[in-house]
Design brief:
The structure is a single chain. By secondary structure, this protein is an alpha+beta fold. It has three domains: about 30 residues; about 190 residues, Penicillin-binding protein 2a (Domain 2); about 325 residues, Beta-lactamase, CATH 3.40.710.10. A hairpin with a 6-residue loop joins strand 11 and strand 12. Helix 2 packs across helix 3, helix 14 crosses helix 17 and helix 15 packs parallel to helix 21. The radius of gyration is 35 Å and the shape is elongated.
Length: about 600
């Protein structure tokens, strides 16, 4: 027998070490596997486990209602039923997919398409996929809830509107959030399928209107059926509906404005000069907001987009036109403030103004001062005045009144219009381009100057206020349903550095336009109301001239300022002025029927 076989300790240490290593390896494998399951896969398994044990049900808030200044309801809600799907379980169940397609009366490929759209979203939370399915289909889906365990009906709000007014561009509409919006707004609690304001007030005041979602946690059995609330509802989050908005709009005035502008192309804006609140805002042609409430047919949007009248475009805040003779008050104020003219300066009008080898037309008004020049809309007076002021000073006063800039109105969609600055003219037309014939044209609001109807209403409201300019706005207050109180908003105000005595002269000229024989808008006169106005006929290189009228009333303590433009309608005195007159009449005599306007004389028909 060898010595090795008789030695009991032979190989003992070697075997022990091998055993230790093997044990450690086995333990390491088990620990590694447990770590993988607990740490790496833990969150996934935990979500799947919770998805089987507890379901999260979103409770959608109703968007806030919208009222006019007198508490008349303009926009409210009705329930709308949306199908929400939890992708994780549903995508694996072919039977549920077939059943849901049958209940919704759609092809299964449509469901597959919807599931594909949200592939990057959480598969363990319900995602709203089919909107406004109707109460009958929603009830059917609820009947099959034992089978469609990963399908839930979410009650949302669908907008309803006052049927006597449109206000489509100003109120705006809410639709399903886009992928791009979702990417930037997730931190605000938005999820796929949520509604979000897309235009007008609905967009500008989205944070006020949308409300805060509630969350219900419900316990489910192994088959996915709801059996009870989870943790007795202690983890639930209460829903909070959106704030109700109270506008500056006067519904009766809005209805009148829309009726008067019907079947025309143009816009009307009425502002309360005392606070800058918009009393009425109409843009025609427009569209019905009902077409954008709930599920929207692609055909509706295509039809409106292809309409040559551009009904989706807000002419009140986005279309820009030459102001024509309504611009003359600005030029007159600049001349008076800069000392280029006085109230008694006389300019002789022979019926034309020769300058730079060209003759600029007018009517033979004879000798006129600034007040008479506004009343009769004498072009020659303002041709000369613009030349004497020069482009730098015209630019200064255009900027003071906010032309070429946004007003800041709270409707979201607004354009700046355009005023040709000295720098722009030099870049466009070369050195010294700010001199000569262009300045002559700018004196009467022609050439490259373009303004929006909203800017013009704000401009005439500022004249009514003798230089106090208040940012125009459409929201007056909102009801904070968390604090249970009405909250009123404040908007910026500034005072223009123009002497009030100069505004007095301009206001008197505008009063004469309407109330003194020979004025260009005698047909806007209202007995007992001192209306101040100015007509304008803006040349249009693409067709017939545009018809303008701006006004405010009463002269002593103004409560309303209006700008009206009717595209391709000719003289401001014959078309726009009577429209403004009827809106004024409704404002001052809301329960009366307007009397026929006074017929303008032959001179009035020329501006």
């Amino acid at each position: 027998m060898s010595r090795a076989s008789n030695n009991p300790s032979f190989g003992g240490n070697l075997r022990l070490n091998i055993l230790r290593v093997l044990t450690l390896l086995i333990v390491a494998v088990y620990i590694g596997r447990l770590a993988h399951l607990q740490i790496v896969k833990g969150s996934i398994y935990r979500l799947e486990s919770q998805a089987q044990a507890v379901k999260e049900e979103i409770v959608e808030p109703f968007r806030g209602n919208i009222y006019d200044r007198n508490g008349k309801l303009l926009v409210h809600n009705e329930p709308s039923y949306t199908v929400a799907i939890t992708i994780n379980g549903f995508s694996k169940d072919i039977g549920s997919r077939l059943l849901l397609a049958s209940l919704l009366d759609i092809d299964t490929s449509e469901i597959t398409k919807q599931l594909g759209k949200y592939i990057k979203e959480s598969h363990y939370k319900p995602i709203k996929m089919f909107k406004d399915v109707g109460i009958e289909k929603a009830a059917l889906i609820e009947e099959y809830s034992d089978i469609l365990v990963d399908v839930q009906i979410v009650v949302e709000s669908k907008r309803l509107y006052d049927d006597k007014i449109t206000m489509a561009h100003s109120l705006g509409y809410a639709r399903q959030i886009s992928e791009a919006e979702l990417e930037s707004l997730k931190e605000k609690g938005y999820r796929p399928g949520d509604l979000i304001g897309k235009s007008g007030i609905e967009k500008h005041y989205e944070d006020y209107l949308k409300g805060t979602k509630g969350i219900k946690y419900v316990a489910v059995n192994p088959f996915g059926k709801r059996v009870s609330s989870f943790n007795e509802g202690r983890d639930d989050k209460l829903v909070s509906n959106g704030y109700d908005l109270y506008l500056t709009i006067d519904r009766r005035l809005q209805e009148t404005a829309e009726s008067l502008m019907a079947k025309r192309r143009g816009a009307l804006v009425a502002i309360d000069p005392r606070d800058g609140g918009i009393l009425a805002i109409a843009s025609k042609p427009d569209f019905h907001l009902e077409d954008f409430s709930g599920r929207v047919s692609p055909e509706v949007y295509r039809r409106l987009s292809n309409d040559p009248g551009k009904p989706l475009y807000s002419r009140a805040t986005m279309s820009a036109y030459p102001p024509g003779s309504t611009w003359k008050m600005l030029v007159a104020l600049a001349g008076l403030q800069e000392g280029v003219i006085t109230p008694n300066t006389i300019s002789y009008c022979s019926g034309s103004f020769p300058y730079g080898g060209r003759t600029y037309a007018c009517h033979a008004h004879g000798g006129v001062n600034v007040r008479r020049a506004i009343q009769a809309s004498c072009n020659v007076f303002f041709y000369r005045l613009a030349l004497n002021l020069g482009m730098h000073r015209l630019q200064k006063y255009a900027k003071l009144f906010g032309f070429g800039e946004l007003t800041g109105v709270d409707i979201s969609d607004e354009k700046k219009g355009f005023f040709p600055t000295v720098d722009w003219l030099r870049k466009k037309f070369g050195k010294n381009a700010e001199r000569g014939g262009r300045v002559v044209n700018y004196g009467i609001g022609q050439g490259e100057i373009n303004v929006t109807p909203l800017q013009m209403a704000n401009y005439v409201a500022t004249i009514a206020n003798k230089g106090q300019m208040i940012q125009p706005h459409i929201l007056r207050s909102y009801y904070n349903n968390i604090a249970n109180r009405q909250e009123y908003l404040k908007f910026p105000t500034k005072v223009l550095p123009i002497d009030k005595t100069n505004f007095d002269i301009i206001q008197q000229g505008m009063f004469d336009v309407v109330n003194v024989p020979g004025g260009t808008a005698n047909n806007a006169k209202i007995h007992g109301i001192s209306v101040c106005g100015k007509t304008g006929t803006a040349q249009n290189p693409h067709g017939a001239d545009h018809s303008w009228f701006v006004c405010f009333a009463p002269k002593e303590n103004p409560t309303i300022a209006i700008a009206v433009i009717v595209e391709n309608a000719g003289f401001g005195s014959t078309v726009a002025a009577p429209i403004a007159r009827d809106v004024l009449f409704k404002h001052f005599f809301p329960d009366s029927i307007p009397r026929p306007p006074v017929l303008a004389d032959s001179i009035a028909l020329r501006d």
